[in-house]
Amino acid sequence: MKSMQRVVPIVVLALVLSACGGGAGDSAGGSIRVYTSVTQDTVDAVVEAFGREYPDATVEVFRAPTGELTARIAAELREGGLRADVLWLTDPLSMQRYDADGLLASWRPTNLEAVPEAYRTETFFGTRLLNMVIVRGADVDPGPERWEDLTDPAYRGRVAIPDPGFAGSAFAALAYFALGDGDLDYYRRLAENGVVEVRSPGEVVSGVADGRFAVGMSLDKIVRGAVGKGSPVTLVWPEPGAIAIYSPIAVVAESPQRPTAEAFADFVLSVPAQEAIAATGWEPIRADVDWPHRGPQVGVDWREAFDRQDDLLREYRAVLGG
Question: What pLDDT sits at residue 27?
């Protein structure tokens, strides 16, 4: 996840030079620009797989954390127009603002039916799932089993949560609890229990690993990655479920390379691309692609969350005292 928080944006020019594909691949060529906040290893794996299917296409990838990518897009719009052909973002909240501004194309990918209805609209489509889960220290006993357990006085002053104003996944958690309860009662109880806000989900995991915190909220991939490196943390898949955040892709309406842009976005939903996504540690959006870590999930009403974003963040700051 550190790669998602780099201060300096990363630009990768991926010249797609590989064996010839067939079918739709024959009509896709030329150069497209993909603007993304998805982790670099995942983007690289998908672009490489795309190259095996579309040998005549060139994909230029600009990758940056969400905040910096948003700033770049805003600057380009002020200067005369968005220069991206495809947007591949971390969460639907980020994408909805561009949909509301009329920047996204309405179209139907050939792989559309593989994407659950909850994770697609007429202009953008889920590509992978990020799951907000609980992380605890390996020596924390008893450990939490439910989201509600983070308000237990047993963990007073030792619970960490990421900043929902910085991390889209943290805002998903805020939206889930606030919209589900009708208010911020859960966060009030966290605050009363001495919860500590850190910047990102990765910082939650590192804080639990070094003993600053006993438990916290983070993303499943980050926790599994830390466990794989021998970090003294444990992933807890909480009841009633992990908070699922889908990572959407969209084609820019004014793209001069619409056929190739659509081919790329459609390919990301295909089995080969979904297998590449799974191989980099993220849950694929397709249920027919193997993923051994699936568990119960709860969702967010993203439309309502988008409409109430400013209010929810303002209320959250009032509760946390920020």
Answer: 64
Helices vs. strands in the chain: H and E counts, helices first: 11, 12
Task: Say yes or no: domain 2-129+246-292 is CATH 3.40.190.10.
Answer: yes
Cross-strand pairs, 3: none
Count CB atoms within 10 A of the CB of residue 233: 27
- Identify the CA nearest to 19 among candidates 60, 41, 49: 49
Task: Take residue 290 and report the two structure tokens written for it.
Answer: 């193997």
Low-confidence stretches of the chain (pLDDT beneath 70): 1-27, 322
Neighbours of 5 (CB within 10 A): 17
pLDDT of res. 26: 47
Which long-range contacts does 110-119 make (Cβ < 8 Å, 24+ apart)? 110/24, 110/266, 111/266, 111/269, 111/270, 112/269, 114/269, 114/285, 114/286, 114/288, 115/269, 115/285, 115/286, 116/285, 116/287, 118/246, 118/299, 119/246, 119/248, 119/285
Q: Pairing mode, if any, of strands 196-198 and 297-298? A: unpaired
For domain 131-243+298-320, the CATH class is alpha beta
Q: Is 131-243+298-320 the same fold as 2-129+246-292?
A: yes
Note the pLDDT tens digit of each residue in 221-265: 999 999 999 999 999 999 999 999 999 999 999 999 999 999 999
Rounded Cα distance between 314 and 102, Å, is 27
pTM of the model: 0.86
247, 126 Cβ separation under 8 angstroms: yes
Domain boundary assignment for the chain: 2-129+246-292, 131-243+298-320
Bridge partners of residue 126, in order along the sequence: 248
Distances (CA, A) of 7 to 74, 75, 198, 224: 18, 17, 17, 24
Nearest to 86 by CA among 64, 67, 60, 65: 60
Condensed to tens digits (0 to 9), the pLDDT of residues 104-133 reads: 999 999 999 999 999 999 999 999 999 999
d(CA 8, CA 30): 28
pLDDT for the residue 167: 86
